[in-house]
Amino acid sequence: MELKEALKQLPYKKQFYFKWKNNYNMRNPKTEEEALKQLDVKDLYVYEQWESSSEYQLLMNMLIQSRIGQDLQVIYESTSEKAKQGDEKSIKILFEIQKQIVAMNKELKSKKPSKQKSENAYDDLEL
């Protein structure tokens, strides 16, 4: 499951708090005072307590994983340029990054449900 999908399953206020707290997809970051108004609460105690829950931790892990993917892309591009200039260390690192990307892609492909099953869930039923 992707982070966006997981967030959609939460109540609006939890979605907002998570996005605000982690600056995730926030076009105009809000101050704490603005967040309090948006959440219609006097303090963030309940949401701060929620941060220690397994639900919140799972969301954080998903967020970190997505950021790692972005970081990996930046590192790959930088290392690729150095490798093209003949830097031996960068060449070795580039091959390692490529192996990691292939492994991540295999893992992602194995996690995705097949589209055929989800589109026609009733095809296997007999009348």
What can you tell me about this protein's structure?
The chain is mainly α and 127 residues long. The chain is built from seven helices and no strands. It has helices at residues 3-8, 12-21, 32-39, 45-50, 54-84, 88-111, 115-119. α5 (54-84) runs antiparallel to α6. It is elongated, with a radius of gyration of 21 Å. Residues 114-125 have low confidence and may be disordered.
Using brief descriptors, characterize the structure shown.
7 helices, elongated, 127 residues, mainly alpha, 2 domains, disordered C terminus
Question: What does this entry show, briefly?
Answer:
The protein is mainly α and 127 residues long. The protein is built from seven helices and no strands. α5 (54-84) runs antiparallel to α6 (88-111).
